[in-house]
Amino acid sequence: MVAFLPADTHTVNETWDLTLYPNDTVVYPEGAVWNVTLIQRVVTLGIIMTATLLGNVIIVLVLSRLRYRRRSSRVNIFILNLAVGDLAVCGITMTSELLFEVFGEWVLGAVCCKLIVYAQIVTLASTTFILTSMSYDRYQAICKPLQSTVGNIRARRLIFTSWILAFTVAVPQIFIFVQKEKGVTTTGRIRYECVSQGYTAMWQRKVYFSWLTTYILVIPTVCISFCYLNVLRTLCAASRESPKKKDDICLRRSVGSANAIPRAKIKTLKLTICIIASFVICWTPYFIVHNIRIFSNYNIKIPQTVIVGAETLALLNSALNPIFYGYFNVRVRKGFIEIVYRKKDFRSCITASQSCSNPMDSGDTACSSAVVQKQNCQRKTRKMAAIEIEMYNRQFLGGGKSRQKTRGSCSSSSRV
Fold this sequence. Notes:
Elements: E1 19-20, E2 26-28, H1 36-64, H2 66-70, H3 74-103, H4 110-143, H5 151-169, H6 172-176, E3 177-185, E4 190-196, H7 202-240, H8 263-295, H9 304-328, H10 330-340, H11 342-347, H12 349-356, H13 359-364, H14 370-397, H15 400-415
Parallel strand pairs: 2-3
Antiparallel strand pairs: 1-2, 3-4
């Protein structure tokens, strides 16, 4: 089970056949029971972790490069922080979940039980707050473009505020989750779990989970919906209106006509909508399932496959975001090509430099990145030209005195 939300602490009991000793001690198998269900779960987590790690590492590398930082837009700043958050989800949430599934118990200790669960909520809350900030930024850029002239500064402030809020609202997790002894194994070893037992009554669990659902899902969804409904209304108004006179001056940053909103903004708007829709779709089933269980005092029995499916779908969100980034952002795709094929282009520099001298051959050269190949060709050509000049100076200028003497002797003999 995903530990960062105060769900049922007895999920494992529903899947294992347990034996109760006379002293009510629960006996668990030694280690995890590797059945088909567990293997599918581990394989699925491994695939999601790999996709999340590779995709978000590429996004961070591309957007962190110097030339992309110099011309980075506000949306790229948000995307970079979302990618960092997704990497944290992969390294903290997914890793701890995978360890729990593999070992069948909590093996990281009491301190990590509090710190890891705290970090899990930080990453989740930061993603939610950054997405809300991104929606507000798009609202300002489309609906109030004249007020968004200092967007980069404001974007960084919004992101900084989002991270501070995430670290703040996650503090209760430190006091709620503790490491507890949960029975013994068949060999007599004490078994531990990281569980949410920082409550003295069931109503406290309900209140806290309601608050968690409110600031993670409900409030952000309302704010995001408000922003994009206004954006949609502005786009519809801009598409219907047309200039009354041909000589009318239409500013690009105004909303006086259909041409007032650049296509780049529309594409960016589609990107943010896909990211936010993916977050809401992936995380809503998780909150619904656990709200039903908690508010029914765990009397409503939801199938274990549904619970695992909701948790897996929630983790899948971190792997989907890089796909949206690459699909809608041309610079990300170009940067990815440059990173992947950099070594290949470097090794083929000699062949490319030879083909650069012939325009017909250079057009047919099979190269993965035209930009990198051109730069390598130019460097190689400059280096070769410098070597030729140096050789010319040594050969002709260095032997200038001997040639002058020969010319002098020839001229004197001709005079005689």
